[in-house]
Specification:
single chain; 761 residues; mainly beta; 8-stranded mixed β-sheet; 4% helix
């Protein structure tokens, strides 16, 4: 009897052992009795589809496998298929991760490192192209989870708690209550798909094998689809020339700095640098970004945020390709201090603003150099460098407590210091340089450094040296105007955007109001907050929500026209972005006016005014630096550019020489060769000036006539010679009503008659 009883027990155990279901290698006694899973161990016929239908292949190699995800959520298209190629050995987990990393639309929830390998808890796909891939856990919208390389990680089997940020996306996740992902595989020798009780980490791929992830919602099984929908290749369609960048500090102690991009249609792409560079990021608290030439320079306060395990830190200075966001170089050490700002100086050199001075940067060889003489001194938070600007002759750099340092790029040393407690410095459209203090603007003559003060009537501008940021003090390329946001105190910004008309020297302290000023928690500016599109002249304002903590996950981008009217508002994905500043692409190149002669005869010292001879559609034309690049024979003629932006040609003996003038507009260079025919005119030291110039050229509205002579008459003709009516007022011609094209202008003065060409755009 005892023997028979023991045999019965063994049979009983064997029965339940055989009935036990494993999900991705995990024994699941909890779902043994569910009749809805009875088909799990049965065979299912393979789809008639073959590898030829696959459009999107990830990886390279001689082997290939198919990867299918079937959500069974009644959203189309379901049962999506990708292809995977590899050499050597690869697992099902390798295939899933490679596809998640390559296809930014596909994302997953994984519990990695279990005794059974990685558990696949959830899979999603961005169906509507909204780029809002991310998850909420347990309905907590305050702290969303965003995938890195397509993966959101968890450390337990809590898959049932996750929901997608975008409900329109494919998303299924579960383990104990919602359902679960069942795993079906087929090798080349198999005629049918078979249920795999093992997980993706154990699954060894073969050349020609198939993996299907088939979700069982509510523990109800679905047949594998008869047809699969081929996923089109993921292509990063972001055109970084159309839109603007948002440089982010990011969440200190959690993530390194990043940059988002808002395209011309208003769509926001997040962490575009990280997406392009395999989850690399910037340093900790990225506070400044600028484009110079074809490179984007990102400056962070520290080299790395030690709390960030998701993104690889890039250092205090990261250099990227401005058109593609591909990394060029990264630097942890920028001279021993923390990062603040960057400005391009010439073809070979940039300046790094740091907490301990200004340091040279070799653009050509990508090397951090020595301290610019005279810029050091002071402790980290009493002598730090703020923002810097490059004018046609100098670099103006704000230094805490010391004032504004005027640096001569020719010697890389401080020429003079404008003393005072300045917060920021900018250059206006007319070329004038402006510093701002608590309640005054100070105009700085660019060449004599003479100062003129203008008191701000009622509001204040209080900088942020303690936790430095670039500040809201900014300028317009299209209007001769400056803008900023008023301050309540050193810790709180106000709600008013202030405008200063540089031409009339008048203040409008109620130009525009920051939106979102109702309710308990208000919208407040953060970081630099305010910048102006150089082409459209629209104001871009970044705000976050007051109240500290989780409120800082709420972020808005507001657009105002140049009249102060709010025209658009965008809401960012909830996260602690802490936006530092807006940066606009630099697309246009400088254009040299046809009025600059290609050949000139000189008998005396001859002056050619270069101030308005070159223009740039998306940069300040009067900030363009001019230099003599070469002179084929200095024994025949000398060529120098003086502080008035005048080219002075002085003949030394009779003969011809070629002088090449280089124009640098924010790192974009154009050149003009001038053939100089020199002859000596003994007995005179008088200067001869080229008498007339018209600018800007091309022109949209107002064409200016530059001459020291008295203008007696002006006539405008089209290219056929037909006279055109044009309004002339005080050496200015309104050409806004003309159609685009080439025109001829005849200017008659009391000394001579001149003919010039101009382009109406």
């Amino acid at each position: 009897m005892k023997k028979n009883y023991f045999l019965i027990v063994l049979l009983f155990i064997a029965f339940f052992t055989n009935a036990q279901v494993t999900v991705q290698g995990v024994p699941r006694n909890d779902i043994q009795q569910k009749s809805s899973v009875k088909k799990l161990t049965s065979k299912k016929k393979a789809s008639a589809a073959d590898f030829a239908q696959i459009k999107y292949w990830v990886g390279t190699g001689a082997n290939q496998a198919a990867f299918v995800v079937q959500w069974n959520d009644e959203k189309n298209a379901d049962a999506l298929i990708w292809g995977f190629r590899w050499d050597g050995n690869a697992t099902g987990e390798d295939m899933l991760k490679a596809i998640a990393k390559a296809d930014r639309r596909f994302f997953s929830l994984l519990y990695q490192g279990t005794q059974f390998g990685s558990a696949i808890g959830g899979l999603g796909f961005d169906l509507n192209g909204a780029n809002t891939n991310g998850l909420y856990k347990d309905k907590n919208v305050t702290y969303p989870y965003y995938p890195v390389n397509g993966i959101v990680n968890t450390t337990e089997y809590d898959f049932d708690l996750y929901t997608p940020i975008d409900a329109a996306d494919h998303w299924q996740s579960g383990w104990t209550s919602n359902g679960y992902w069942s795993y079906w595989v087929k090798n080349p020798t198999d005629t049918e798909f078979g249920y795999s009780g093992l997980g993706a980490s154990i699954r060894v791929l073969e050349n020609g094998s198939w993996d299907v992830w088939n979700y069982n919602p509510g523990f109800n099984s679905f047949d594998i689809a008869s047809t699969f929908t081929a996923v089109t290749p993921y292509v990063a369609t972001t055109d970084f020339t159309a839109g603007y960048f948002l440089v982010n500090e990011e969440w200190f102690g959690h993530t390194n700095g990043s940059v988002n991009f808002v395209n011309a249609d208003g769509n926001i792409s997040y962490r575009v640098y990280s997406a392009t560079n395999s989850s690399q990021a910037f340093g900790a608290t990225t506070q400044y970004g600028t484009i110079y030439g074809d490179k984007f320079y990102f400056i962070s306060k520290q080299a790395s945020d030690g709390g960030d395990s998701q993104y690889t830190p890039g250092g205090r200075l990261v250099v990227a390709n401005a058109k593609t966001m591909k990394k060029i170089a990264g630097f942890n050490d920028i001279g021993g201090g923390d990062g603040r700002s960057f400005v391009g100086v010439d073809e070979k050199t940039g300046y790094i603003g740091a907490s301990n001075g200004v340091f040279l940067f070799d653009i050509a060889n990508l090397k951090v150099g020595s301290l610019v003489t005279g810029t050091g001194g002071g402790s980290q938070y009493s002598g730090q460098i703020g923002n810097m600007i490059r004018t046609s002759h100098y670099v103006f750099a704000v230094k805490q407590n010391a004032g504004i340092l005027v640096i001569d790029p020719a010697t890389n040393s401080v020429k003079t210091t404008i003393t005072g407690a300045f917060h920021s410095v900018v250059q206006a459209k007319d070329g004038s340089v402006w510093g701002i203090q608590n309640q005054k603007l100070i105009n700085i003559n660019e060449t004599t450094f003479a100062l003129t003060e203008y008191a701000i009537p009622t509001t204040k501008y209080l900088g942020s040296w303690g936790a430095w940021n670039a500040g809201s003090f900014t300028y317009s390329n299209q209007q001769n105007a400056l803008y900023w946001i008023n301050s309540i105190n050193s810790f709180n910004s106000g709600t008013q955007i202030v405008k200063f008309d540089v031409a009339t020297k008048t203040f409008n302290e109620n130009f525009a109001v920051i939106p979102g000023q109702t309710g308990t928690f208000k919208q407040i500016p953060y970081g630099a907050a305010l910048r102006i599109d150089p082409v459209s002249d629209k104001l871009i304002l970044n705000t976050t929500e007051s109240g500290f903590g989780a409120h800082y996950q709420k972020n808005w981008i507001h657009t105002f026209d140049n009249k102060g009217v709010l025209t658009n508002t965008k809401i960012l994905d909830d996260y602690y972005w802490f936006p530092a500043m807006t940066v606009f692409p630099d697309n246009a190149s400088p254009v040299i006016s046809a009025t600059l002669p290609s050949e000139v005869s000189v008998k005396n010292a001859t002056v050619i005014d270069l101030k308005n001879i070159v223009s740039d559609a998306d940069n300040l034309s009067l900030a363009i630096a001019k230099s003599v690049k070469s002179n084929s024979d200095a024994q025949i003629v000398t060529a120098v550019i003086n502080e008035k932006d005048e080219l002075v040609l002085t003949p030394k003996k009779t003969g011809n020489a070629t002088v090449v003038i280089s124009f640098n507009s924010n790192g974009k260079f154009v050149e003009k060769s001038i053939t100089v025919k020199a002859s000596i005119n003994l007995g005179t030291e008088e200067f001869t000036k080229v008498k007339l110039a018209v600018y800007p050229n091309p022109v949209a509205e107002i064409l200016n006539i530059q001459t020291e002579d008295e203008v007696l008459g002006v006539n405008v003709y089209d290219i056929s010679g037909k006279a055109i009516n044009a309004e002339v007022n005080n050496k200015q011609i309104n050409v806004s009503s003309l159609i685009k094209g080439l025109y001829i202008i005849n200017v008659v003065t009391d000394k001579a008659s001149y003919v010039q060409k101009f382009i109406k755009n």
